[in-house]
Amino acid sequence: MKITDVRTILTCPKQNYLFIKIMTEDPEIYGIGDASMNGREKAVEDLTLEYLRPMLIGMDTDRIEEIWQLIYRGTYWRGGNIMMSALCGIDMALWDIKGKIAGLPLYSLLGGKVRDKVLCYSHVLGKTNEEKIEKAASFVQEKGLKVIRLRAGLPSANGTLNADGIQNTPKVEDWDPEFWADDMINYFIKIRQVVGDKVGIIYDLHERFSPERAIYIMRKLEPYNPFFIEDPIAPDCFESLKTVREHTNVPIAFGELYKSRWECLPGITNRWLDFIRCDLIRIGGITEARKIGAIAETYDVKTAWHGPNDVSPITHAVNWHLNVSAYNFGIQEDGTVDDTVKEVVKGGPVYKDGYLTMEDKPGIGCDVDEEAAKKYPYKRAYIPVCKRPSDNSLCDW
Ligand code: KDG
Ligand code: MG
Prior knowledge:
Layout: E1 3-11, E2 17-24, E3 30-34, H1 41-56, H2 64-73, H3 81-102, H4 106-109, E4 118-123, H5 129-143, E5 147-151, E6 172-174, H6 181-195, E7 200-204, H7 211-221, E8 228-230, H8 238-247, E9 252-254, H9 261-269, E10 275-276, H10 286-298, E11 302-303, H11 313-324, E12 332-333, H12 339-344, E13 345-346, E14 350-352, E15 355-357, E16 367-368, H13 370-374, E17 385-387, E18 394-395
Parallel strand pairs: 4-5, 4-12, 5-7, 6-17, 7-8, 8-9, 9-10, 10-11
Antiparallel strand pairs: 1-2, 2-3, 4-15, 13-16, 14-15, 17-18
The structure holds 2-keto-3-deoxygluconate (KDG) and magnesium ion.
The site of magnesium ion has 5 residues, from loops.
């Protein structure tokens, strides 16, 4: 089937999302992918419409691998967040079309199910850490959660998600990695005390610490059995990850900022991490996730694909298809999907008692209501920056 058009849908049902819709010769068969990139949506849209759309029109939708390689290698300037996000939107849309033509859900194209449902974790939300400590136990009980996720920060993620107006400059979050490590340790310990020993606790340190501070925190948390510590340090220096690994025993999840399988390789092949947690949109979609997942399986590394609510239900659905069909699945982040988002994107995984399930439909199993999307126009928004209140200096996020 030939590609007849490549369109974009940019919308802000509380959070900005960019979708790519690929049309075929058959008006009934189209594919939709997620190319959302919090804080840079317009750049991805421009690349898609100006450079990728013209060269894709007329190509065969069946040849996903060839199209992936053409976009990745054919442009000479390979990789990067903007290109990989556009590539992901296209890749997902093509897999969606392949599933629709075959009349099969995506997981079936990926080899079929090895499990029936997907273990997931949810974020403990609240304005302050004190509020989160107070709420954590009832949150776990009411939702039937097996695993929860905390985040290092004071206050929590203020302004990271949800575009509440057009911004001209990022919000500033107070953060001091040198002096607030002990507060972060105490926060985790208090949550462990209120939820008990049976609940898994994930701690997202959000690339916020130096190797030395990360080691300090992780060693102190060893007796409290974290499910894993996520992104303790910035991703840029591989030797730093090696250092952290050599000095602590807690499981490590890493990689939501990686953009290719080559960036994942040292951490996986040296076993400096236990869970690889790439964001599917940043790595160019399903085609690349399968390859990273297979390398990880080879080295006894599990998957924990990134799933916050700045990826849409389409990516949550794709994560789900990968998770039910992969032997080395570890756990899935279940970002809260707001009702406004559900008005625009139909379908996606459904949460019950600590697990995610999904109805069988051909392809990815989601659709975008374009009329609803128009009601929520794009709003320029930035991910906040972190600064030390003591001297106003920028620090890692
Ligand atoms: O836009 C940034 C978010 O995607 C990020 O803060 C979410 O780290 C995150 C996570 O683990 O969900
Ligand atoms: Mg994270």
